[in-house]
Predict the 3D structure of the following.
Amino acid sequence: MARINDNFLKLKAGYLFPEIGRRVGAYADANPDKAASLIKCGIGDVTEPLPAAVREAIHTAVDELGNRDTFRGYGPEQGYDFLREAIVENCYADLNISANDIFISDGSKCDTGNILDIFGKGNKIAVTDPVYPVYVDTNVMIGNTGEADEEGRYEGLVYLPCTAENDFVPAIPDEKVDIIYLCYPNNPSGASATREQLTAWVTYAKENDAIILYDAAYEAFIQDDDVPRSIYEIEGAHECALEFRSFSKNGGFTGIRCAYITIPETVTGVSATGERISIKQLWARRTSTKFNGASYPIQRGAEAIFSDAGKAQVVALVDHYMGNAKLLREACTEIGLKVFGGENAPYVWVACPEGLTSWDMFDKMLTEANVVITPGSGFGAAGEGYFRISAFNSRENVKEVCKRLKAYL
Ligand SMILES: *Cc1c(COP(=O)(O)O)cnc(C)c1O
């Protein structure tokens, strides 16, 4: 008899996107004439082609592997030096981060989940509400929570409400927690965190001996010079924060996979005997045991993001998506909806018209405007009354969505 991990049975069976898929499927079946013109602004996936500099670098790398003299097998588990050095030079100049602090992986989704391997039981864990569901579900799987209540909140987690009142950046809790997940610019709310807000969190983490898991997947979309791009711009973060970054959204790598975690040597946790242990050393050990490195051609592709051509192509991609966000913001504002986000992130977060729940709004947009959005309540109880429009789309589709918003709402 093979016993399973019973924690998996606590999971609310992948509620959000399957339910969206079910409703969209039922609608398309019932309205075959409308199915072809349905526009999906739901899932946060990029739509525009991979930058030319990336494609060229990958082609070259594949050809190297086709030649006995330049063939490579297993690479370093932590990632190639060429990529880790390019990251330090381009993302962390003057921030006191070394190439040795960078761990290349095949995605931030895996990284934010896998990181729990090196933390013990009994930590008090805080997540925002609304939240990127991966942080919650991976804690459920590993046994860090009890059961979910009717609103989907798991016993044992500390939920930090993000509301219009706090600009979708949570207030510092009045209790002590050990691990805090923060994601800025934020998915789903599209909010960004100011220097002052992040400083308050770093101060809290240091005072409470806590660790911040900082997800900066949307860093490239920051338009405002005052918004910090890295948690390490905040003094003291080198002692209490890990940063997750990905090439998925800036470089369009969602299908080819490359990301990294940054862990300064000075971030530590405590062993059962009270000894201070470097988180980086634990993660290095974990990585060399459970991972054999990201694909060589893909790491070359990621390196190309930092070439002159690559940088210009990423700027063009970001400008494209942020131009979409601006159009979506304007259209929603014009029809009298309250709009948040979309200024430093590719997500527009919109308050539903008075009296409509998130799912009411989803159904209304689907059946009246023939547009798929994401109900805010799917990201947590505090997301109720909001919906998310993704700016990841073609300009043509976004213009059409704006037209339909104005026509049908
Ligand atoms: C898209 C996204 C990521 C990136 O995930 P990958 O696995 O690197 O594609 C990370 N965090 C958040 C919140 C995201 O929305």
Q: What stands out?
A: The pocket of pyridoxal-5'-phosphate is lined by residues 44, 107-109, 132, 183, 187, 215, 217, 246, 248-249, 254, 259 (CB under 6 Å). Residues 77 and 287 are 6 Å apart (CA to CA). The longest strand covers residues 241-246. The chain has a mean pLDDT of 96.
